From TrEMBL:
Domain NurA: 59-406
Recorded superkingdom: Archaea
Source species of the chain: Thermococcus sibiricus (strain DSM 12597 / MM 739)
Xref: InterPro entries: NurA_domain (IPR018977)
UniProt-recorded name of the protein: NurA domain-containing protein
One Pfam family recorded for the sequence: NurA
Length: 438
């Protein structure tokens, strides 16, 4: 028997029921209410997605994905290569960034900034393609919402500290061009960790008498708003409500559910038995993002001096960054929903900028997720046409993912070897730091 497996077997015996319940079920008291809310209020639209399917050649699609490799070297520096690829039929668009730099922060923070560079190259590639005349559908592998939700702070890369200013400048250029040229931009992700649909449903049931007990509507709503950003304060608030009222209904279970990072796709899989899609919801910024925006609106230079402590000594940077920050109010809201093409599969998360389906709503004007009544049939047609079954959630994105994939051997033998030749250092196996990021 493998070492430690006997101990693992004991853990299975001890925790079998706990693990099963934790994986499949929300708290019992609210689970049935959420399921009823999905079906009774028609937040789930049952439909055969195949009814939207068309021929792939009906669409002019630019599918975009990216990849990276990096290595921490013995002198403490980081060598990285990030590349993005866009495929449009036989045409391809490419972007690549390679650099050697010194970084601050943990391994997680360094990995995170390199992943943001992947997103940046994807956005840049899409923007340049539209500038060059592309006017079809841009498909990006991943969430669009996540791409406009990053906090604008100084980068841990010592020679690219202004990265997040460049990032948002590129985002706004892309959206501006897409809107002017009537380009549909769609983000598609499978098994996303998002919780916006669950949060929306909880807001719908929070004022039901069986949920809030004797607590007023305003107090119940305050509880769920507080839970999203100030968890400790929310639990203290529940204690106060229990002292004030003899019956607070299911609010304590609601709070436990809201503070559990349970993804939407798990809720949908547990509640839905037929193909279809969730009602499209307008998404706005997080509470933390809103606070930062308010700081920017009140004092953009003060914000930059706080969040960019090193670069803020450069007057040219302050002028440039202030212009970008002042344009953040132009960011569109993101419309997001989940599609279940096949009941045997996991739901796909779909994101589109609001202007792509006829809404002028801005990102910072949206609070809690709210339904939007706009035509999404064209988006559904693209999702249905691109769906390739259980193994291929999108045929266009599957192809570009395969082409852009960055294998470690390729990085070591072609990119890293050329770098060491350039800097004149013989990097053998002992010269690498023990910790790799990928």
């Amino acid at each position: 028997m493998p070492r430690f497996y006997d101990m693992f077997s004991k853990k299975i015996s001890e925790k079998r029921d706990i693990w099963i319940n934790r994986y499949h079920k929300p708290p019992a008291g609210i689970g049935s209410l959420i399921k009823q809310e999905i079906k009774n209020k028609k937040w789930w639209i049952p439909v055969s997605i195949k009814t939207y399917e068309r021929k792939p050649n009906d669409f002019n699609v630019l599918a975009i994905d990216s990849s990276y490799q990096m290595e921490r070297l013995k002198n403490g520096g980081l060598f990285y290569v990030v590349r993005a690829l866009g495929l449009n039929g036989k045409n391809e668009h490419r972007e690549l960034e390679a650099d050697f730099d010194y970084t601050e922060g943990s391994a997680h923070e360094v990995t995170s900034i390199i992943q943001r560079k992947m997103e940046y190259l994807e956005i840049k590639l899409a923007r340049k393609a539209i500038s060059d005349g592309f006017n079809g559908v841009v498909l990006i592998d991943g969430s669009l919402y996540g791409r406009i939700s990053h906090l604008i702070i100084e980068s841990p890369l010592s020679n690219d500290r202004e990265f997040f200013i460049k990032y948002y400048q590129e985002v706004m250029k892309l959206f501006k061009l897409a809107k002017e040229n009537n380009v549909l931009v769609i983000g598609i992700s499978k098994e996303s960790g998002s919780k916006f649909f669950r949060d929306f449903l909880i807001k719908q049931i929070i004022t039901l008498p069986e949920v809030r007990g004797e607590v007023s509507d305003e107090e119940a709503k305050k509880l769920i708003s507080t839970s999203l950003d100030r968890k400790r304060e929310a639990f203290e608030y529940v204690k106060q409500l229990k002292l004030k009222y003899s019956n607070i209904g299911l609010l304590e279970e609601i709070l436990k559910e809201l503070t559990t990072p349970r993804p939407d796709y798990q809720l949908i899989e547990a509640s839905i038995t037929e193909p279809g899609y969730t009602v499209p919801l307008l998404l706005g910024p997080s509470s933390r993002w809103v606070r930062r925006i308010k700081q920017i609106e009140m004092d953009p230079i003060g914000y930059l001096k706080t969040q960019f402590p090193i670069l803020s000594n450069n007057e040219d940077f302050l002028k440039y960054a202030k212009v970008v920050l002042n344009r953040l109010k132009e960011l569109p809201a993101i419309v997001s929903f989940h599609v279940l093409p096949d009941k045997r599969d996991s739901p796909l998360r779909i994101d589109v900028p609001a202007f792509c389906i006829g809404s002028s709503t801005k990102f910072q004007d949206v609070g809690w997720p709210e339904p939007i009544d706009e035509d999404i049939s064209e988006v559904l047609s693209i999702v249905a046409t691109g769906y390739g079954g259980l193994d291929y959630h999108n045929i266009w994105l599957w192809k570009v993912d395969r082409e852009v994939k960055f294998h470690r051997r390729e990085f070591d033998e072609m990119y890293l070897s050329k770098f060491k030749e350039l800097v004149g250092v013989n990097l053998n196996a002992r010269d690498y730091r023990r910790v790799r990021f990928v």
